[in-house]
Design a protein that fits this description.
This protein is of the alpha/beta class and 416 residues long. The chain contains 14 helices and 24 strands. Strand 12 and strand 13 form a beta hairpin. The radius of gyration is 21 Å and the shape is elongated. Bound molecules: ligand EPZ. Ligand EPZ binds next to helix 1, helix 5, helix 6 and helix 12.
Length: 416
């Protein structure tokens, strides 16, 4: 298992081109199975999660080949409708393969995707919606058996705007007869990306980005070439890293509109941020002001995926911050590790109260999950002395060349 070794104290300076979005590209891989034609996904980040999704598609009979920053998928010869247990456990988000495999093969078998590092992660919203579309579902021995031979469009109302369930229903309903509507749909930019991709393949979807999505089923899908949207969470992580260390950064290819909430909070805390259509420039010196209250919410609220990195910034801000994690029930696993570095944090239920200090101190710590691990890297960049972070495979699930990019910006970080 790899480790990062970081000597803290450098400021960050320079430019970076932000990678394609992990959370946008994973549902696109699922959508590529709707057609027998070739699908090319450009600006596709090379990450552990993407490699695992590629393995799952190959196990179903698809050809998947990476050519630089693009991945070519040909689902002409699908020969299985069973999503392999081991890989499904590795990659929770393989659950939205259910929608596309059912739309294409009319049946599917998948192991119950257990919880993960940040919460129980139930799939009741997915399965309830599938039943409303006419999918017959049997759950036994930890497996989910689905029969979609008689699916029909239907009006669906979500109790909660689940991102994955919105994507799963879009994938399944695209191949169902008749009209499907989703009310209280998730509004994340990745949903709009999926709509654009599926429409390029011949689907007829509208409303993504709003709480009300309409999907008109279609019989035939064609191949397409599609460029993945930029990764707003990775872009946000580098902005927060610069605020933690001081310096100036220009993020090329990031969509400021996808990061309104973070940009507003960082500006209020004293960071100087300029934006144009596809770039974000930030300059910060000295300690930022604390955050009186940060509450994670569904998009366009403050994203839960940036909660952990922002905790690190709050640890070295001037004053006391309050951070409330509303989306996942155990997304504070980075906090005990930050406390080992001298952070002053107390957690009651979902509220973390963080008293900012001048600087953290290096320590030997472990990454527990993807975004919490990234938060620990940012803490090491600030800390006096050396920080050694183990279990960095969690971080490599979502950040392409994280150490190399930070080193190019001036950080003293190596991977061993
Ligand atoms: C997606 O997860 C993202 N993953 C997550 O990013 C992100 O944190 C999350 O959306 C929220 O923005 C991918 O896109 C691959 P949800 P997803 O369904 O689809 C509950 C990262 O770090 N829920 O909106 O699983 C659930 O337990 C990852 O990149 C149900 O109760 O998110 C959670 O509390 C982490 N029943 C809340 O809703 C369901 O059927 C949000 O889940 C589904 C969800």
């Amino acid at each position: 298992m790899g480790k990062y070794i970081i000597n803290g104290g450098s400021t960050l300076h320079g430019q970076l081109v932000v990678q394609g979005s992990k959370n946008a590209v994973l549902p696109l891989f699922a959508g590529a199975l709707l057609t027998e034609d070739e699908v090319v996904i450009q600006n596709c980040p090379d990450l552990l999660d993407v490699q695992n999704m590629s393995r799952i598609l190959r196990s179903l009979g698809a050809d998947v080949e990476r050519h630089g920053n693009s991945v070519k998928i040909v689902g002409k010869h699908l020969n299985s409708h069973e999503i392999p247990v081991g890989l499904a456990k590795e990659l929770r988000s393989s659950i939205f393969l259910l929608g596309s495999v059912l739309a294409r093969m009319k049946k599917a078998k998948v192991a119950y995707p257990g919880g993960c590092d940040i919460g129980i992660r139930p799939i009741n919203i997915h399965l309830d919606a599938f039943r409303e579309l006419g999918v017959r579902i049997e759950e036994r021995y930890g497996y989910i058996f689905c029969d979609a031979s008689e699916i029909q469009g239907a009006p669906i109302a979500f109790d909660y705007p689940s991102v994955g369930a919105t994507e799963n229903v879009m994938l399944l309903a695209s191949g169902a007869k008749g009209m499907t509507t989703i009310s209280n749909a998730a509004r994340e930019p990745e949903i709009e990306g999926l709509q654009d991709f599926l429409n390029a393949m011949g689907a007829r979807i509208s409303g993504a980005g709003t709480p009300f999505i309409t999907i008109e089923g279609t019989e035939h899908f064609k191949g397409t070439q599609y460029t993945t949207i930029p990764d707003r969470i990775v872009a946000g992580t580098y902005l927060i890293a610069t605020a933690v260390c001081g310096g100036e950064i220009e993020i090329i290819g990031a969509k400021p509109a996808h990061l309104h909430s973070l940009i507003s909070k960082l500006t209020k805390s004293g960071c100087k941020i300029l934006v144009d259509n596809d770039n974000i420039y930030m300059n910060v010196s000295g300690r930022v002001a604390a955050f009186d209250k940060i509450e994670t919410q569904p998009y366009p609220g403050f994203p839960t995926d940036l909660q952990a990195p922002l905790c690190t910034l709050a640890c070295v801000a001037r004053g006391t911050s309050s951070i409330i994690e509303n989306i996942f029930e155990t997304r504070y696993k980075h906090i005990p590790e930050l406390i080992k570095m001298g952070a002053r944090i107390s957690v009651i239920d979902r509220v973390a109260t963080i008293r900012g200090i001048e600087r953290l101190s290096g320590a030997e710590i472990a990454a527990m999950d993807l975004r919490g691990g990234a938060a620990l890297v940012l803490a090491g960049l600030n800390a006096k002395g050396t920080t050694i972070i183990s279990d960095i495979h969690h971080i490599e699930r979502g950040y392409q060349n994280f150490d190399g990019t930070l080193a190019a910006l001036g950080a003293d970080i190596i991977k061993v």
